[in-house]
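The following record pairs a protein chain with its ligand, nickel (II) ion.
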Amino acid sequence: MKLTWFGHSCVWLSGTKNIIVDPFIGEGKEITADCDIIAVTHGHADHMGDTVRLRKRTVAINEIAKYLAIKGIPVEGMNIGGTIEVDGVRFTMTPAVHSSWIEEGGIGCNGGAAAGYVITMDGKKVYHAGDTALFSDMKLIGDLYRPDVALLPIGGRFTMGPDEAMMAAQYIGAPLVIPIHYNTWPKIVQDPSKFKFAIERTTDMKVAVLAPGETIDL
Ligand code: NI
Ligand code: MN
């Protein structure tokens, strides 16, 4: 499986199937990568992004799934703690400590709970934490699912910052950590090299700091 970070929280997993998590890459930028399945972590615009425009089969929490179904999007609704299989790919929805709001034309509706995913494809497990604060049950996610990769927000302000994400990485224990949700806007500017240095100096985990558009082989 190949993993491409498009920037912000948008990740493209390419293997037996092509999956995009949180299809948003910045205001005015459109996603052109091909995908079979979209997974949305929560309702905020910087995560829902191009979901409606792309019109692909979409995995989301029930409240967002209802909203997307009204738009004519084929949806797979689920909820936290559950696992579904879509075209041979497993999606386990994990908790996230965050809010969720679907906005359209200046008004909005509640998007249910915010979530993350453990996605299993081609024998690899990828944990995408979504937007979240640090929470100690990340230890449970690590113990239960043993992800090969953990994608963790480090931007601060709206999510964990680098210090909290360091402890999150230790709770989860994935051998590879990829920081996300930073440097998209001035309010979430961080230096990922410090995060990398701190984790690699104190643990056996590796941190891959990717440039937007960069791909790695898992
Ligand atoms: Ni958010
Ligand atoms: Mn966000």
